[in-house]
Structure formats: structure tokens, C-alpha cells
Design a protein that fits this description.
This protein is an alpha/beta fold and 329 residues long. 43% of the residues lie in helices and 19% in strands. The longest helix has 21 residues.
């Protein structure tokens, strides 16, 4: 005898099977992590991204009950680390600390990028956002961002701005600033951030955008003059310095960021488990306190939220890079 199943019963049964399958994925690896997790960092030891990675690597085991080991794979604008991560087994035991460079700007700056930031990775969670600050030489005749805009508009093509790392959030903050204000300034590219900062202090260039942590000592010592910070909200390290948005450019934000990603194909249940662990770490007051003195905000979210953030970030900086006339190399 053939038993007929109603459409409603079929749908309910199908959803039940799907839900059971999703739940079973969580319990399919009940001991995860059963061995140390490798956290690939695409920069050298000691930098801001490395510091973020090491803080989370130290805190995550308190939630996951398993070790997290940082491995620095620096070089080629983050490409070496990204390729190593995307080529690893998609089992949750190799993770990657992505940046604005590896996952937002490299596709527009490199003609032959050996990885796809969308297809080759799964978002887990943001980790931090890093504000930049606009500074000018200490004797430069302006004290606010609006005064700088007026000064530069009266002298089209006469002012320079320094770039320590092409395509960094610091660099693109100025490109976005130029596009929003219509300023005509020349871009001077240096070998690195320290050289760019040195020439700014010497007065050979008139504007520098740099991470708050890099310039805070010079600002306090009076070696440079700060005009505005590029985060949407003021960072605790510079509570009296207005943001660019507060200085007449509503909605302006140009922050660097670090986020946690996994190789494409990593089981959904593991991605969700890791994201939940990151969010728990991000809620700890001691973690926020570690970064408070560095101009860094702890910002964690779900994989879905991080995915939407990445999409918007790539779109914004892709448009800025193209409008600035920066060609892939």
C-alpha cells in the first residue's frame, strides 16, 4: 500500500532533517579544538596587526579550551600570509588575521593577486578598528581641519601629503579626504611610515595621515599638530581631538581594521563556534583596556555582519582607489 505524504508534512520533515543535519555538524567534532589552532598573521612581529593577533591568541584559549599559536608570514603586502592561509586544510585549525590591505584594497592595487578575498575565505568576526589621525608640521599656520581646507584651496597644487604605505587606511584616508573636499594636493610616496613621519616633522610635506598609536607621542610632545581623527567616534587616547566627521565632513570614516577569517570550505558550525568565542573575548573589559591606550577599538560581530562589512569596505576603497587614479601594479 502506498502512503501519500502531504506537501506540508514533506516540507516540515525536510526542515527537520536540515535542522538535524546542522545540529549534527556541531556535534560531529565534539572535541574541537582537539589540537592547537594556527593563527596566520600577514605581517612581521611587533606591528599593530601582530599585537592584535597575539592578544586574541592569548585570550581565546580561555573560551575555546585549546591553544592558539601565532605564526607570522609577512611579505608582499600580506599576500604570502593570505596564500598560506587559503591553501591550508579547511578544518578550523588554520585561521587568518585579515586587514584592509589583504581583503579590501589588494584586489585594486595588484594586477595578479594569487588569491580571491571573497571566494577563498569565510568571515568569522571583526577584531579591531584602528583610527588614523591627520597631522601637520608644528609650525604650519592652521589649527583645525577647516582651516587646513581653506588654506589648501587657496593654494591648489602647492601642498604635499606623505604616504608611508600605498593602499593602507592611512593613505586612503587622505585620498578620500581630497575627493570629499576637492583639494588639489600632490602625493609623495615613501619607503615606509617612519620616513613619511620624519619628513612631515621636518616640514618637507604638509599633511600626514597615520595611525593614532604611531603619532600620539609626537602630538603630546608638540612635534606635530593634530587636526582630526578619522574614526567615526573619538578614541580614548585623543578625547579632545574632533573627528573628520565632526569637522564638517559628515559620515567620514577611514579606519584600519583586523578581522578573523577561515579558509573557504571550513564547516559552518566551526565558523559559528569560533565567532562566538571571539565575541566573548571582545566583551572582556581587560581586552578593551589593553587596546585603549593605542587608539584601537575592539569591534567583534557575527560572520554575517562581518561579511557585509567586508563587502561595503571593498566597494568604498575600490571606488576611492579608482578615483585617485592609482593603477594596479
Amino acid at each position: 500500500m502506498t502512503k501519500r505524504i502531504s506537501r506540508r508534512s514533506f516540507i516540515e520533515t525536510s526542515f527537520g532533517i536540515a535542522a538535524a543535519s546542522a545540529s549534527s555538524a556541531v556535534f560531529a567534532q565534539p572535541d574541537f579544538p582537539g589540537r592547537p589552532i594556527q593563527l596566520i598573521v600577514p605581517v612581521g612581529a611587533g606591528g599593530a596587526t601582530d599585537t592584535v593577533a597575539r592578544v586574541f591568541a592569548n585570550e581565546l584559549p580561555k573560551v575555546l579550551k585549546g591553544a592558539v599559536i601565532v605564526e607570522n608570514k609577512a611579505g608582499a603586502g600580506g599576500v604570502i600570509g593570505a596564500v598560506a592561509a587559503k591553501s591550508a586544510p579547511a578544518d578550523g585549525y588554520t585561521l587568518f588575521v585579515g586587514t584592509i590591505g589583504t581583503h579590501s584594497t589588494n584586489p585594486y592595487l595588484m594586477a595578479r593577486l594569487p588569491y580571491d578575498p571573497v571566494r577563498d575565505f569565510l568571515p568569522i568576526s571583526l577584531l579591531t578598528k584602528v583610527s588614523n589621525v591627520f597631522v601637520v608640521p608644528k609650525n604650519f599656520p592652521v589649527n583645525t581641519l577647516q582651516e587646513f581646507i581653506a588654506y589648501a584651496k587657496a593654494r591648489p597644487g602647492e601642498l604635499n601629503f606623505s604616504v608611508g604605505t600605498t593602499g593602507s587606511s592611512s593613505h586612503l584616508a587622505v585620498e578620500l579626504f581630497k575627493q570629499r573636499t576637492g583639494l588639489n594636493m600632490e602625493r609623495i610616496i615613501y619607503k615606509g611610515p617612519s620616513e613619511a613621519s620624519t619628513d612631515l616633522q621636518a616640514g618637507r610635506v604638509q599633511l600626514l595621515s597615520s595611525p593614532v598609536i604611531n603619532e600620539s607621542a609626537s602630538i603630546k610632545a608638540g612635534r606635530v599638530k593634530a587636526l582630526a581623527q578619522t574614526a567615526l567616534q573619538r578614541v580614548p587616547l585623543l578625547p579632545d581631538l574632533p573627528t573628520v566627521a565632526e569637522s564638517g565632513l559628515p559620515g567620514f570614516e577611514a579606519s584600519g581594521w583586523n578581522g578573523l577569517l577561515a579558509p573557504a570550505g571550513t564547516p559552518h558550525a566551526i565558523v559559528e563556534l569560533l565567532s562566538e568565542a571571539v565575541r566573548k573575548v571582545g566583551q572582556r573589559k581587560e581586552v578593551a583596556q589593553i587596546f585603549a591606550g593605542q587608539g584601537v577599538d575592539v569591534v567583534t560581530n557575527t560572520p554575517q555582519e562581518f561579511g557585509r562589512f567586508l563587502e561595503a569596505d571593498r566597494k568604498q576603497w575600490g571606488e576611492v582607489i579608482k578615483a585617485a587614479g592609482i593603477k594596479p601594479q
